[in-house]
């Protein structure tokens, strides 16, 4: 991550000079994108460093969610970039600007090689939402370089200046699609949303089949960070049943059937003391 960050900063300076000299919006837009990429990569690198810190009294779950916050911020930044590119491109369509196609294509070709290498470096790392957010920034640069090369060739061969802003808009659309997905996924985690692979109702129904367990309710599943699911639930155990055995069976079932290794289980006998709580509380097979 740090290596790609430095690589991005160095070539960003090259693109700024090339864009100003050639008059290319595609290069300038890509340089602006690379600036935000540098900030995004820096944020992602910082998030990775923070996630390694151990839990403490103020952060009893540790700092894993910093990576989710970084991914969310990076996704929003990508959305803002695409809006800016589209606005600038629209202005260029109505007021065409002379572009030096040869210089534009040459700089963009070098940028393409740099971005392909940077994307390859990031793709080799352990994949998670934070790294994906950073990789999408680099992928956006890669696509921007491809568009700039293509626009430069079109301008050199046919002299058609609108190719620059039109291809910039096309790249913006491709970036936006990935950005929205990252914002949606990271936002879902930050809002304590239920993981897509987990169904609280199915969990309650499955656990209710365990010997001695009469009812499972108040099931809540969420993600501390990507691939770090947590679950809490209440289990009513029959009078006279072995509570410790039932608890062990519940935790084993959660781990083996649903991949939920971090579970907090409240074992009860008789009516649930929280039944007077929020409306919508349901039992086995209908947990909330």
Roughly what is the average pLDDT, rounded to an integer?
A: 80
Q: Could you give the count of β-strands?
A: 3
Q: pLDDT under 50 segments (min length 5)?
A: 276-288
Please give the alpha-carbon distance between the first and last residues: 39 Å
CATH superfamily of the largest domain: Cation efflux protein transmembrane domain
Proportion in helices: 55-70%
Q: What is the CATH topology descriptor of the largest domain?
A: Alpha-lytic protease prodomain-like
State the CATH class of the largest domain: Mainly Alpha
Order of strands in the sheet with most strands: 1-2-3
- Helix and strand string, N-terminal first? HHHHHHHEEHE
Name the shape in a single word: elongated
Strand content: 5-15%
The CATH level-2 architecture of the largest domain is identified as Up-down Bundle
Structural class given helices, strands, pairing? Answer: mainly alpha
Supply the number of helical segments. 8
The profile of the biggest β sheet is: 3 strands, mixed
User: Structurally, how many domains make up the residues?
Assistant: 2
Computed over alpha carbons, the radius of gyration is: 26 Å
Please characterize this protein's 3D structure.
By secondary structure, this protein is mainly alpha-helical. The chain has 2 domains: 2-190, Cation efflux protein transmembrane domain (Alpha-lytic protease prodomain-like, Up-down Bundle), CATH 1.20.1510; 200-268, 2-Layer Sandwich (Alpha-Beta Plaits), CATH 3.30.70.1350. Helices cover 63% and strands 10% of the residues. It is built from 8 helices and 3 strands, in the order αααααααββαβ. It has a 3-stranded mixed sheet. α2 (25-51) runs antiparallel to α3 (66-94), α3 packs parallel to α5 and α4 runs antiparallel to α5 (129-158). The longest helix has 30 residues, at 129-158. It is elongated and about 85 Å long. Mean pLDDT is 80; it is low at 276-288.
